[in-house]
Design brief:
Layout lengths: L2 H29 L6 H34 L4 H31 L4 H33 L2 H13 L14 H10 L13
Helix pairs in contact: 1-4, 1-5, 1-6, 2-3, 2-4, 2-5, 3-4
């Protein structure tokens, strides 16, 4: 397995832990009929917008997908659909943020809308990453050449994840602690070690 393949799967695993925690925080607040920690939920959205949407998806679209298109024409429809989904993430996250702001302004009556927005995004992202792991990455391992992988691996190694990477940033410490507390190893990220 190549570095980019491992990095993509690790980033997906971390995303699943993050989404699970995000969903739990909103569901817990709704079940207790109390407002969630808006600062913390905002941190979740900041991370999703600033890392996942600016680095993870663009690297797939700029490096992995074009290389696979060159080597396996049968993947064209699948890759086009996945790229279309990458474009849909920003509006989905914007809608989620709108629901968070509305809940903060209008109170607990908006918790169901916030929960629905979180659940919609979670379903969307899980379906997307499952497709990448079950279809795209195996096809890439079968069809790409070592020279293709060199460029793809370098691109994925270039951007350190500020939350889960070896050099994680302190601004995400509270967010990481919440995720680690709700997602114990082996299902959660454990400690940041950059593996």
């Amino acid at each position: 397995m190549h570095d980019a393949h491992r990095i993509i799967c690790r980033e997906h695993r971390n995303l699943v832990a993050l989404l699970s925690c995000l969903k739990a925080l909103v569901r817990d607040a709704e079940a207790a009929e109390r407002l969630p920690d808006f600062k913390q939920l905002g941190e979740f959205l900041d991370y999703l917008e600033n890392y996942l949407n600016r680095f993870h998806h663009p690297k797939e679209s700029a490096y992995l997908f074009p290389a696979l298109r060159r080597r396996d024409k049968s993947c064209e429809d699948l890759l086009s659909e996945l790229e279309s989904e990458h474009e849909k993430v920003s509006p989905i996250l914007a809608r989620l943020r709108e629901c968070l702001v509305a809940c903060q302004a209008e109170g607990a009556s908006m918790l169901p809308a916030l929960r629905e927005a979180v659940e919609y995004y979670t379903r969307f992202e899980l379906r997307h990453l499952t497709c990448e792991e079950r279809e795209v990455l195996p096809a890439a391992e079968r069809h790409l050449r070592e020279e293709d992988w060199e460029e793809i691996d370098a691109a994925f190694r270039a951007n350190e994840d500020p939350l889960f990477g070896a050099n994680w940033r302190g601004e995400y410490e509270r967010l990481f602690s919440e995720i680690a507390a709700r997602s114990p190893v082996p299902n959660g990220p454990g400690r940041p070690d950059g593996d």
